[in-house]
Amino acid sequence: MKNYDWIVIGAGITGTALAYELTKIGCSVLLLEQNQITDNATVYSYGGLPYWAANTPITQKLYKEGITRHRLLSQELMADTQFRELDLILTIPHDINPEIIHQSYQQCAIPPGLLTVQEACKLEPLLHGDFLSGALTVKHGHIHPQKTAQAYIQAMLNLGGEIQFQQFLELTTTATKKCTGVKTNYTTFSSDNVVVCAGGISRNLLQNMGIYSNSYDGYKIYFSHAEMIKTPPVYIKLNSLVLPANLQRLQLEMASTHTEELWNQPNYEIVPPILDSGVVQFLDGSLCIGQISRIFTTPEITVNSTNSTSSEKWLRESITQILPSLANVPGTWHHCLVAFTADKLPLVGAIPEFSGLHIFSGFSSPLLIVPPLAVRFAKWISGKKDDILAQLSPER
Ligand SMILES: Cc1cc2nc3c(=O)[nH]c(=O)nc-3n(C[C@H](O)[C@H](O)[C@H](O)COP(=O)(O)OP(=O)(O)OC[C@H]3O[C@@H](n4cnc5c(N)ncnc54)[C@H](O)[C@@H]3O)c2cc1C
Question: For atom 35 of ligand 1, which residue has the closest CA?
Answer without folding.
Answer: 10
